Amino acid sequence: MHLKTADGFLSTAETPPSEHVGHLEQVLSLMRESSAMNLSANIVHIIDREADSVFHLREWSEQSFHYLVRAIDNRHVRWREQAVQLREIKAQLESERAFAESREVMIGNKKGIQYIAETEIILDRAATKKVDGRVVCIPGKPIALRLVMVKVLDAQTYLQCFDRIIHIARPQKAQYRSLQ
User: Whole-structure pTM over 0.70, yes or no?
Assistant: First the structure.
Protein backbone atom coordinates (compact mmCIF):
# COMPACT_ATOMS: atom_id res chain seq x y z
CA MET A 1 0.00 0.00 0.00
CA HIS A 2 1.11 3.54 -0.68
CA LEU A 3 0.08 6.76 1.00
CA LYS A 4 1.16 9.99 -0.63
CA THR A 5 1.97 12.75 1.85
CA ALA A 6 3.43 16.26 1.51
CA ASP A 7 6.83 14.73 2.28
CA GLY A 8 6.59 11.86 -0.23
CA PHE A 9 5.24 8.30 -0.04
CA LEU A 10 4.73 6.09 2.97
CA SER A 11 4.72 2.57 1.64
CA THR A 12 4.70 -1.10 2.57
CA ALA A 13 6.73 -1.70 -0.61
CA GLU A 14 10.47 -2.18 -0.48
CA THR A 15 10.76 0.53 -3.12
CA PRO A 16 8.00 3.16 -3.00
CA PRO A 17 6.85 4.54 -6.36
CA SER A 18 8.13 7.78 -7.79
CA GLU A 19 5.74 10.69 -7.25
CA HIS A 20 5.41 10.85 -11.05
CA VAL A 21 3.95 7.33 -11.35
CA GLY A 22 0.16 7.39 -11.81
CA HIS A 23 -2.24 5.44 -9.60
CA LEU A 24 -2.98 2.74 -12.16
CA GLU A 25 0.68 2.25 -12.96
CA GLN A 26 1.28 1.43 -9.27
CA VAL A 27 -1.31 -1.35 -9.10
CA LEU A 28 0.61 -4.12 -10.89
CA SER A 29 3.65 -3.80 -8.63
CA LEU A 30 1.35 -3.88 -5.57
CA MET A 31 -0.35 -7.00 -6.94
CA ARG A 32 3.01 -8.69 -7.42
CA GLU A 33 4.23 -7.71 -3.94
CA SER A 34 1.04 -8.87 -2.23
CA SER A 35 1.21 -12.16 -4.14
CA ALA A 36 4.76 -12.69 -2.88
CA MET A 37 3.47 -12.54 0.72
CA ASN A 38 2.16 -16.10 0.28
CA LEU A 39 -0.96 -15.49 2.35
CA SER A 40 -3.22 -18.44 3.14
CA ALA A 41 -6.23 -16.79 1.45
CA ASN A 42 -6.63 -15.62 -2.14
CA ILE A 43 -6.15 -11.90 -2.57
CA VAL A 44 -8.81 -9.97 -4.46
CA HIS A 45 -7.77 -6.43 -5.35
CA ILE A 46 -10.69 -4.00 -5.12
CA ILE A 47 -10.18 -0.99 -7.34
CA ASP A 48 -12.44 1.94 -8.22
CA ARG A 49 -13.76 3.03 -11.62
CA GLU A 50 -10.47 4.62 -12.68
CA ALA A 51 -9.16 1.06 -13.19
CA ASP A 52 -11.78 0.19 -15.80
CA SER A 53 -9.06 0.25 -18.45
CA VAL A 54 -8.82 -2.50 -21.07
CA PHE A 55 -5.02 -2.29 -20.97
CA HIS A 56 -4.85 -2.80 -17.20
CA LEU A 57 -7.63 -5.39 -16.95
CA ARG A 58 -5.89 -7.43 -19.63
CA GLU A 59 -2.48 -7.01 -17.95
CA TRP A 60 -3.81 -8.18 -14.57
CA SER A 61 -5.81 -11.07 -16.07
CA GLU A 62 -2.84 -12.35 -18.07
CA GLN A 63 -0.90 -12.61 -14.81
CA SER A 64 -3.81 -14.38 -13.06
CA PHE A 65 -4.42 -11.68 -10.47
CA HIS A 66 -7.91 -11.53 -8.97
CA TYR A 67 -9.68 -8.18 -8.95
CA LEU A 68 -12.99 -6.44 -8.62
CA VAL A 69 -13.30 -3.16 -10.53
CA ARG A 70 -16.24 -0.77 -10.59
CA ALA A 71 -17.21 -0.63 -14.26
CA ILE A 72 -18.32 2.28 -16.41
CA ASP A 73 -21.75 1.65 -17.92
CA ASN A 74 -20.71 2.53 -21.48
CA ARG A 75 -17.91 -0.08 -21.51
CA HIS A 76 -18.08 -2.06 -24.79
CA VAL A 77 -17.90 -5.83 -24.39
CA ARG A 78 -18.98 -8.99 -26.18
CA TRP A 79 -21.97 -10.68 -24.58
CA ARG A 80 -24.03 -13.52 -26.00
CA GLU A 81 -22.08 -13.18 -29.27
CA GLN A 82 -23.03 -9.48 -29.62
CA ALA A 83 -21.02 -6.30 -29.17
CA VAL A 84 -22.88 -4.29 -26.51
CA GLN A 85 -22.42 -1.74 -23.76
CA LEU A 86 -22.85 -2.71 -20.12
CA ARG A 87 -25.99 -0.58 -19.84
CA GLU A 88 -27.58 -2.75 -22.57
CA ILE A 89 -26.73 -5.89 -20.62
CA LYS A 90 -28.35 -4.41 -17.53
CA ALA A 91 -31.53 -3.60 -19.48
CA GLN A 92 -31.66 -7.10 -20.97
CA LEU A 93 -31.06 -8.80 -17.61
CA GLU A 94 -33.79 -6.65 -16.08
CA SER A 95 -36.20 -7.65 -18.87
CA GLU A 96 -35.30 -11.31 -18.23
CA ARG A 97 -35.88 -10.79 -14.49
CA ALA A 98 -32.35 -12.06 -13.86
CA PHE A 99 -31.77 -9.87 -10.78
CA ALA A 100 -32.16 -12.03 -7.68
CA GLU A 101 -33.07 -10.58 -4.30
CA SER A 102 -30.03 -10.71 -2.07
CA ARG A 103 -30.61 -8.89 1.23
CA GLU A 104 -31.87 -5.79 2.99
CA VAL A 105 -29.38 -2.90 3.05
CA MET A 106 -29.19 0.71 4.18
CA ILE A 107 -28.31 3.50 1.73
CA GLY A 108 -27.85 6.58 3.86
CA ASN A 109 -30.88 6.48 6.16
CA LYS A 110 -33.12 4.60 3.71
CA LYS A 111 -33.80 0.87 3.76
CA GLY A 112 -33.65 -0.94 0.47
CA ILE A 113 -33.47 -4.41 -1.00
CA GLN A 114 -30.30 -5.38 -2.83
CA TYR A 115 -30.67 -7.35 -6.08
CA ILE A 116 -27.79 -9.02 -7.91
CA ALA A 117 -27.37 -10.38 -11.43
CA GLU A 118 -24.24 -11.84 -12.93
CA THR A 119 -23.13 -13.00 -16.35
CA GLU A 120 -19.98 -13.72 -18.32
CA ILE A 121 -18.64 -11.07 -20.68
CA ILE A 122 -15.73 -11.02 -23.09
CA LEU A 123 -13.44 -8.01 -23.26
CA ASP A 124 -12.11 -8.20 -26.81
CA ARG A 125 -11.46 -4.62 -27.92
CA ALA A 126 -8.04 -3.11 -28.40
CA ALA A 127 -6.71 -1.16 -25.44
CA THR A 128 -5.75 2.47 -25.79
CA LYS A 129 -2.83 4.04 -24.01
CA LYS A 130 -1.05 7.38 -24.18
CA VAL A 131 2.50 7.03 -25.43
CA ASP A 132 4.57 10.18 -25.86
CA GLY A 133 1.40 12.30 -25.78
CA ARG A 134 -0.39 10.27 -28.47
CA VAL A 135 -3.18 7.72 -28.03
CA VAL A 136 -2.07 4.34 -29.36
CA CYS A 137 -4.27 1.25 -29.94
CA ILE A 138 -2.86 -1.91 -28.41
CA PRO A 139 -4.51 -5.16 -29.53
CA GLY A 140 -4.64 -8.06 -27.12
CA LYS A 141 -6.20 -11.43 -26.45
CA PRO A 142 -9.88 -11.50 -25.47
CA ILE A 143 -10.46 -12.11 -21.77
CA ALA A 144 -13.49 -13.70 -20.16
CA LEU A 145 -14.73 -11.83 -17.09
CA ARG A 146 -17.66 -12.01 -14.70
CA LEU A 147 -19.94 -9.00 -14.69
CA VAL A 148 -21.85 -8.57 -11.45
CA MET A 149 -24.61 -5.96 -11.47
CA VAL A 150 -26.12 -4.71 -8.25
CA LYS A 151 -29.14 -2.53 -7.70
CA VAL A 152 -30.84 -1.39 -4.54
CA LEU A 153 -34.55 -0.66 -4.64
CA ASP A 154 -36.91 0.99 -2.20
CA ALA A 155 -40.52 0.36 -3.23
CA GLN A 156 -39.33 -0.10 -6.84
CA THR A 157 -37.36 3.17 -6.83
CA TYR A 158 -33.62 3.00 -7.47
CA LEU A 159 -31.62 4.04 -4.45
CA GLN A 160 -28.34 2.94 -5.99
CA CYS A 161 -27.12 0.90 -8.95
CA PHE A 162 -23.61 -0.14 -9.88
CA ASP A 163 -21.68 -2.68 -11.91
CA ARG A 164 -18.55 -4.62 -11.08
CA ILE A 165 -16.19 -6.39 -13.45
CA ILE A 166 -14.66 -9.32 -11.66
CA HIS A 167 -11.75 -11.57 -12.54
CA ILE A 168 -11.73 -14.49 -10.15
CA ALA A 169 -11.17 -18.08 -11.21
CA ARG A 170 -14.70 -19.40 -11.73
CA PRO A 171 -16.38 -17.94 -8.64
CA GLN A 172 -19.62 -19.22 -7.23
CA LYS A 173 -22.63 -16.87 -7.06
CA ALA A 174 -22.77 -17.07 -3.28
CA GLN A 175 -19.42 -15.31 -3.04
CA TYR A 176 -21.02 -12.05 -4.21
CA ARG A 177 -24.00 -11.85 -1.90
CA SER A 178 -22.34 -9.27 0.31
CA LEU A 179 -21.30 -6.78 -2.40
CA GLN A 180 -22.13 -3.20 -1.50
Answer: yes
